[in-house]
Predict the structure.
Amino acid sequence: MSKHDPDLSRLFHALADPTRRAILTRLAREPAPVTELAAPTGLRLPTVMRHLSVLEEAGLISTAKAGRTRVCALVPEALAPARSWMDEQRAIWEARLDRLDAFVTSMMKETEK
Amino acid sequence: MSKHDPDLSRLFHALADPTRRAILTRLAREPAPVTELAAPTGLRLPTVMRHLSVLEEAGLISTAKAGRTRVCALVPEALAPARSWMDEQRAIWEARLDRLDAFVTSMMKETEK
């Protein structure tokens, strides 16, 4: 995962809004039409549509027309790159702690001599 | 973790930029002075300072003055709420799959009768 990955920026940007996170949580339960997603937000439909576009561009949801209704569904695997990036950071950090640990141990052995 | 958590929005917003992610990756290895963080970005110092402010406001880094130098350090536990939020989404999704599974199994038993 490159640090300059534009998809990763798009993904984190999509998650950086409470309305968009609430929509994702709702869709994790089951797919839903746009009007049903809009209702609990208290926002106007065009605003909700803009949020849905951001989520769709980030690959987090897919939308499909069913007659006159647009139905949204979660794409759960889309969160994987964000999760991987965080795991990488943790791995770098833990490697650092291991090095510190090894350093302290060798210093202690040195003083015991 | 509330879906309206402003800290979570700030956290994801901080992660939604490649320069800021590169700085975090660098700091996961060890603390570093601002000038050293700025060098590989190719950005002007005031721009880098703005990125550092966003990271600090999100709680992802801490900064301390050492003489005339400002040194930045990662706050690794600050990523935990973002990780928890993703884990929650996965749990909701998996509960849904379990319900679907139970439904299909009960339907199959119904047809066998």
